[in-house]
Amino acid sequence: MTEAPRTHAPADTARLMELLSVSLGVYYGDFTVAAASENLTVSQAKTLATLRRGPASMRALAGHMTCDASNVTGIVDRLEKRGLVRREADVSDRRVKNVVLTAEGERVADAIRAGMGTTREGLDRLGDEGRACLYALLERVFTPPPAA
Predict the structure, then answer these.
(1) What letter would DSSP give residue 99?
(2) Helix (H, G, I), strand (E, B) or coil at 100
(3) Contacts of 35 (CB under 8 A, 6+ apart)
(4) Phi, psi dihedral angles at 3 (to 5 degrees)
(5) Cβ-Cβ contacts under 8 Å for 56 (sequence gap 6 or more)
(6) Residues 29-80: pLDDT tens digits?
(7) Of 23, 47, 64, 66, which is the most exposed, with the fewest CB atoms less than 10 Å away?
(8) 148: which DSSP letter?
């Protein structure tokens, strides 16, 4: 009995990293164009996307965006001026300022995601089962395990 020929060689880590790089390049390009369509920089749009998950302190935003807190202050200042976010004192520590999306900020964050046609089309090609599988794999690879 002969085996059917393989269509793909085994996926070693280097090949997976290369494919992730290509995927992220497409995603980033799509995100950049969608952000620009809302007159936002990538950093501003990334801040909105981060806040779409829930309020965050200025320090947490800086960590998530891997930039200095002073950069986040400027980004948040510009978003606040446009009415997309607001600062609120933390209920447990009044010295800490949390950044919260406004209703308009939610609308813009959703519009950016909706405007990412190339990414959407690629994910739609997977179908429900494929998307569920990809979700599980990405969560397994990129979500840190709970602290012991």
Answers:
(1) E
(2) strand
(3) 41, 42, 44, 45, 112
(4) -85, 150
(5) 50, 64, 98, 99
(6) 999 999 999 999 999 999 999 999 999 999 999 999 998 888 999 999 999 9
(7) 66
(8) -
